[in-house]
Structure formats: structure tokens, C-alpha cells
Design brief:
Function: Proteolytically removes the C-terminal three residues of farnesylated proteins.
Structural class: mainly alpha
Number of helices: 16
Pfam families: Peptidase_M48, Peptidase_M48_N
Strand order of the largest sheet: 1-2-4-3
CATH class of one domain: Alpha Beta
Radius of gyration: 24 Å
Number of strands: 4
Main location: endoplasmic reticulum
CATH topology of one domain: Zincin-like
Enzyme class: hydrolase
CATH superfamily of one domain: Metalloproteases ("zincins"), catalytic domain
Order of helices and strands: HHHHHHEHEEEHHHHHHHHH
CATH architecture of one domain: 2-Layer Sandwich
Bound molecules: zinc ion
Strand content: under 5%
Cofactor: Zn(2+)
């Protein structure tokens, strides 16, 4: 964990140095205005300083938790608390829920100070934050209530499955998580997302017609088109799609609609998103995530009965939740390596989706959209190649614009003939 931290901090320092450069990278000169560059530089440097503090606190906290044997202490105390309340501490599910409640309160306190600073200092100073402290508190209360409703049954089910799972526990766990993921993907947009944001159907008009025409031409089963009021919280902009099989929805941020100069620019963003769908990117990622989850449970099955592992972390018994937590700690470096690999694939997919939009004739509009989104979100202009190769799920703007500039095969042949 510490070695991973040192390596990633080295990358952060490299990126911080790139952020400090006083000029735009050459390909963006004249494309991005000087004013936007200055603002993005200030914003990203501020975020970068914040990130250093956040990462340092996180690694110190986790190291202290393991080194000072906080886990066995909290496990013991939560057991005593269960007894005081008059419940059965021998019941592992009840004991686990008490333990996790304590952990959740602690993480909530730590996380709160960071998210308050991030929202009301950084985002506010750079003109992104649109929410009041009341909206922030209301969101937080809703989130806590949701996790109090959804958390316990899920945790109880996982503990129960591991208790009775036997040799095939990895398969049962994976099956449970698969069903849960599908269930969440179904109810999240209908039940949970509307708790936080307002989704209204895109009004009739040129934009709607153009998107529907594009979807129809690609045989995309577009069922509904929504606008979400992202602007009540932040002026960051985006668009996404979701849904199964023949029941797809596209959601546009109201900020995206406000920021783009004409409909075709927005449609080019949709063309890119539809590229992800047409090229099966979403399915590939879903399968990869499922496979990795199965491997993770398999790894856990191998480690879960080792007395040595538990003893090394200060436990004489073998609580299931502790096994899961220790295993999770142990695979952190592997997890980061895996994220790097997934980023490699994701960036290749982004180029493919851009090329897809380009082949539909949206290259100039998509270029405009990418530049606009980059400006409005004050995204990083100067990127360190090591840092972006490791962390970025999307290629840097410079590379995307260059790829959109290269003529298509047909055009290239034509040029060669001329
Ligand atoms: Zn994309």
C-alpha cells in the first residue's frame, strides 16, 4: 500500500509540474482562450494541492488502522455494544452490522470534512458550485438513509452466503452480486436518481428531432430522452445513456445544452455515446467487471480460512467481514494495476467512439463540443504523459483533436489521387 502511495505521489508531482506550465500546449494555442486557460490552471492546481493532502491523510489513516490494530479493537467494542443493547453478540450478522455502523460513522466524519472543503471552497472559488449548504445537507441525509435501508440486508445476505457457501462460495457470491448489480441498474434510474435530481423529458423541438433521427438511423432503441437539472448543484456538464436491451434512455445535462452553441454540437456528443453502444463497449466493460468480481471472490475463498492472516492482523477468531476487509487491503496494489489496464482499454474505446461520430460526419461539431466541454469544465490542459497514461480513462484533448483531424480512409485516398 505504501509503495503504491509513493509511486502515485510521484506521478502526482509530475502532473503538478505540468499544471504549473505558464502556456497552453502548442496544439491548443488559439483553440482555447487565454482567459479559460488561466482559470483552468488555477482550478486544477487548487485541486492538485487538495489531492496531495487527501492522499496523505488516507494513507496515514489506513496505515494507522492496520499498525495500531484498530480493527480488532473496534470488532471487540462493537460486540460489547451489541450485548449492552441486549442483542445476541454470538450472531455474526448482528455483530457485523454493529461493526460496520461504527466504521460508517467514522468514514462519514472524515469524508465530510473533505467534501465540505471540496464543494464550498474549491468548487465555489472557481465558480462551479451552485448548491447551498442546505441542499448539501439534504443530499447527505438522503444518502445516509439510503445506505441504512439498503446496506444491512445486503451485508446480511453476503455474510449468510459465506457461512453456508462451502466449496462453491465464490460462485454463489458472484451470482448474488450479479443479481444485485442488475437490480440496482434497474431501480437506480427509476427510484434513486430522482431522489437527488429532476429528470424532465426533452421538450419537442429541433434538438429532439435531430437526436431521434440519429438514433433511428443507427437502430438505437431510444425509449426516452431526459434533461437532468445538473445545474442546481454544479456547472460541470455531461451526457450519458443507460438501460437494457430494447429500453434505452439518454440523459442530457441542462448545463450541456446551455453551453453548446447549436444543436448539431450536442448531437455530435450523442453520436459519440451511440458509438460506445454500437461498438458494444458497454457490454465488454460489464463482462470484464463481472469476471474480475468472480476472480476477486475466488481469491478471497483461498485466503479466508488462513489462521495466520487473521492472527497477523490481531484476530484470534475469524470474523467473515474482517476476512473480507483484510483481503481487500491486500489486493490494493493489484487493484491499481488493474485500473491502469482498464484505463488503457477505455482510452482505446474513446478513440473508437470519436471515430464513429466522425464517420457519421460529425467531426467538426465533435471538435467544437470537446473544446467547449474542456473549457467549461476547466479540464486539465497540460498533461504529464506518465500521469495521463496511468490515470486517464479518456485521452487528453490534444490527442482526441488530432485523431479527429486525420482524414478518413476515403478522404485520404482521394487526397492521394489529387
Ligand atoms: Zn466516450
Amino acid at each position: 500500500m505504501i509503495l503504491t502511495y509513493i509511486f502515485e505521489t510521484y506521478l502526482d508531482i509530475r502532473q503538478h509540474r505540468a499544471l504549473k506550465l505558464p502556456t497552453l500546449p502548442k496544439p491548443l494555442l488559439g483553440v482555447i482562450s487565454d482567459e479559460k486557460f488561466k482559470r483552468s490552471r488555477d482550478y486544477r492546481l487548487h485541486r492538485s494541492y487538495f489531492h496531495f493532502v487527501y492522499e496523505a491523510v488516507t494513507i496515514l489513516m489506513h496505515t494507522a488502522i492496520l499498525y495500531f490494530r484498530v480493527l480488532p479493537w473496534v470488532w471487540k467494542k462493537s460486540g460489547e455494544l451489541v450485548k449492552i443493547v441486549g442483542l445476541n453478540a454470538e450472531n455474526e450478522i448482528i455483530h457485523t452490522l454493529a461493526f460496520l455502523a461504527g466504521a460508517a460513522i467514522w468514514l462519514q466524519i472524515i469524508g465530510l470534512s473533505f467534501s465540505l472543503y471540496s464543494t464550498f471552497v474549491i468548487e465555489a472559488q472557481h465558480g462551479f458550485n451552485k448548491q447551498t449548504i442546505w441542499l448539501f445537507i439534504r443530499d447527505m441525509v438522503k444518502e445516509i438513509m439510503l445506505s441504512m435501508i439498503l446496506g444491512p440486508p445486503i451485508v446480511a445476505a453476503i455474510i449468510y452466503i459465506i457461512q453456508i457457501g462451502g466449496h462453491y462460495v465464490a460462485i454463489y457470491l458472484w451470482g448474488f452480486m450479479f443479481v444485485l448489480a442488475v437490480l440496482m441498474m434497474t431501480i437506480y434510474p427509476i427510484v434513486i436518481a430522482p431522489l437527488f435530481n429532476k429528470f424532465t423529458p426533452l421538450p419537442e423541438g429541433v434538438l429532439k428531432e435531430k437526436i431521434e433521427k440519429l438514433a433511428a438511423s443507427l437502430k438505437f432503441p431510444l425509449k426516452k430522452l431526459f434533461v437532468v437539472d445538473g445545474s442546481t448543484r454544479s456547472s460541470h456538464s455531461n451526457a450519458y445513456m443507460y438501460g437494457f436491451f430494447k429500453n434505452k434512455r439518454i440523459v442530457l445535462y441542462d448545463t450541456l445544452i446551455q453551453q453548446c452553441s447549436n444543436e448539431d454540437v450536442i448531437v455530435s456528443v450523442i453520436a459519440h455515446e451511440l458509438g460506445h453502444w454500437k461498438l458494444n463497449h458497454t457490454i465488454y466493460f460489464f463482462v470484464a467487471v463481472q469476471l474480475l468480481m468472480f476472480l476477486r471472490f475466488g481469491g478471497y475463498t483461498l485466503a479466508r480460512n488462513s489462521k495466520d492472516i487473521f492472527r497477523s492482523f490481531g484476530f484470534n477468531d475469524k470474523p467473515i467481514i474482517i476476512g473480507l476487509i483484510i483481503f481487500q487491503y491486500a489486493i490494493i496494489p493489484l487493484q491499481h494495476l488493474l485500473n491502469f489496464c482498464l484505463n488503457l482499454v477505455s482510452r482505446a474505446f474513446e478513440f473508437q467512439a470519436d471515430a464513429f461520430a466522425k464517420n457519421l460526419g460529425y467531426a467538426p461539431q465533435l471538435r467544437e463540443a470537446l473544446v467547449k466541454l474542456q473549457e467549461e469544465n476547466l479540464s486539465t490542459m497540460n498533461t504529464d504523459p506518465w500521469y495521463s497514461a496511468y490515470h486517464y480513462s479518456h485521452p487528453p484533448l490534444v490527442e482526441r483533436l488530432q485523431a479527429l483531424e486525420v482524414p478518413d480512409n476515403e478522404e485520404r485516398q482521394l487526397l492521394e489521387i489529387i
